[in-house]
Amino acid sequence: MRLPIDGKQTARRVSQAGFLALFLVLLVKTDYGGRNELAYPVKIFLDADLLVFATSFLSAHKLPAALFLALLFLPVTLLFGRAFCGWVCPFGTLHHAVSFAGKPEAAERGVKTRGSRWKFLTLLFFAGAALFGLQVSGLLDPISFLIRSLSLSILPAVDACLRAFLDWGYALPFRPVSDRFDGAYVFLRAHFLSFYPSRYGQAFLFFLLFTGVLALNRYRTRFFCRFVCPLGGLLGLLSRLGLLRLSMDDSCTRCMKCRDACAGGANPHCGGNWSSSECVTCFNCSSVCPEGALSWKFAAARGTRDRVDTRRRAVLAAMSFGAASAWVLSTSPAAAHPAPSLVRPPGSRKEDEFLSRCVRCGECMKVCITGGLQPTLLEAGVEGLWTPVLAPRIGYCEYNCTLCGQVCPTSAIRSLPGDEKRRTVIGLAFVDPSRCIPFAQGSPCIVCEEHCPTPKKAIVFRQRPGKGGVPVKVPVVETDLCIGCGICEYKCPVVDLAGIRVTSVGETRDPDNRLKLPGFSYG
After folding, report:
1. Distance between CA atoms of 66 and 103, rounded to whole angstroms?
2. Mean pLDDT over residues 169-173, rounded?
């Protein structure tokens, strides 16, 4: 359905396009560009996220200063309702575009249904879990969802396609054409292509979730915003007190054009039953009304009939289920004894505090220079789903890099000065004699020692008899010097399972995770 455009709609569309463009530019620029400092990471959108602010406070009982930017949207919501959803949220803009792209009129548009209560129940579930230290709101928070989906799935695929196309063009025998491709590569390398062609586990899962959620908009207008989004639920509760109200006069002819144009299921055709908690302030309804019966006015929200269709029993059940989930997950084996392969980024807090802060946005993984940070599946238990873990066989922790701490919006990964980062231990390397070339085959190999970045090498050589009694140097890890960066495992020439591997033992963040058992005598 084609809608007439007025000034308010034009302003809203300009705002949506501007914030979406800003989001995409910042997301692309959240990458190593030759400097170990990021001026404007995309985390500024998470800093303005009231859901991240609220759940982080409940779960960690403290807040990084950056998240107080979210408080700016508190008065905005109390004045204009869910304006963040309709004017700012980049994910909401995508849902809006897909919902109205060439879709015929549908009777369900603009109608508030019982399904709208699910976003409030989702919000309450996350709040209940956060009260007991489990921060899982990032699984469905729209900003975290969008950053994670684009960073770990869509952008790497686009990057790979562009690189393949540029390689093909550069290999063409016609020199003037190949020179043009070379120039295009230089430009894209400076402004768009990632520093390192990253590959992420579960990328196809993120792609399916992202495209599936967008596809649901063809079934119900702004499906995610209306039925799922916990941030929309939080803003919807606040917007019930909003001062910008929709009113209808007696000139209404019940043509239902306002209902069919509504983006949020806010009942604009019902007069006194207009739902401020569902309205995303898109102004479609007043713009399409042929009689001008709908108007917007600032007025106190007294005696509002906008009821959140959630009974007290459902409220208690949602919060209790969230709290119970946090307690049950706290008794999992992963909570007591994390997997040895769970090597967290440098600056990560102790595991329980880390999980109470991490919102699974994926920014640390996107910005990792080597692509070594990967999303977990079950390595950290269900409670640690999609949190970052270092996979040294894919990429190592660059010795001088501090980017992951810079982009973390909740300080689950602390931003470390360079000197402290280089001293931070995230794990310990172990030589596997059954696979290490000098040990297993008696042939010389110095790759791990050669690439060890510590000023005093954490890998040294000891001589032992090799083939035919000829001495051969074998690597030995100095446990007091190794920081667990994983470059030795990454560079190991053994193709499949490396001859030297890193585990999380000895990490700085957890004084209990130590190699030697207390009270046990060695030697």
Report:
1. 40
2. 79
Residues 241-269 as b/e (b if ≥16 CB within 10 A, e otherwise) read ebebbbebeeeeeeeebbbbbbbbbbbbb
**Which amino acid appears at position 3 of this protein?**
L
Give the H or E element holding residue 146: helix 142-149
Of 174, 131, 141, which is closest to residue 48 (Cα–Cα)? Answer: 141
Q: Contact 193/366 with Cβ under 8 angstroms?
A: no
Contact 46, 360 (CB under 8 A): no
Residue 394 clears pLDDT 60, i.e. is over it: yes
Tokens 């806010």, residue located? 266
Element (H, E) at 39: none
Structure tokens at 384: 């640690």
Q: If you search the block for the tokens 């803003």, which residue do you land on?
A: 235
- N residues, the chain: 523
Q: pTM for the full model?
A: 0.91
Residue 257: name the closest of 81, 10, 12, 2 by CA.
2
For 364-406, give the secondary structure using H, E and C.
HHHHCCCCCEEECCCCCCHHHCCCEEECCCCCCCCCCCCHHHH
The domains found in the chain, sorted by start residue, are 7-149+206-298 (no CATH), 417-523 (3.30.70.20)
Contact 225, 239 (CB under 8 A): no
Distance (Å, whole) CA 217 – CA 100: 9
User: Hey, what are 146's tokens?
Assistant: 């969008």
Q: How many CB atoms lie within 10 A of CB 136?
A: 26
CA 202 – CA 204 distance, rounded (Å)? 5
Q: What does the CA dihedral 170, 173, 179, 185 come to, rounded to 10 degrees?
A: -10
Nearest-10 Cα torsion for 309, 312, 318, 324: 180
Closest CA to 110 of 307, 284, 268: 268
Using the Cα atoms of residue 79, residue 83, residue 89 and residue 91 in order, give the sign of their dihedral: positive
Q: What is the pLDDT of residue 2?
A: 45
DSSP code per residue over 210-275:
HHHHHHGGGTSTTHIIIII-HHHHHHHHHHTT-SEEEEE-TT-----HHHHH-SS---GGGGGG--
CA 263 to chain centre: 26
Q: Are 50 and 123 in contact (CB under 8 A)?
A: no
* Rounded distance between C-alpha atoms, residue 330 and residue 333, angstroms: 9
Cβ-count burial 310-325 (b if 16+ within 10 Å, e if not): beeeeeeebbeebbeb
DSSP class per residue in 149-169 = HIIIIIHHHHHHHHHHHHHHH
- The DSSP bridge partners found for residue 374 are 389
Q: What is the pLDDT of residue 332?
A: 83
127 in helix, strand or coil?
Answer: helix
Token match 């396009």: residue?
A: 17
Q: Is the pLDDT assigned to residue 418 strictly greater than 50?
A: yes
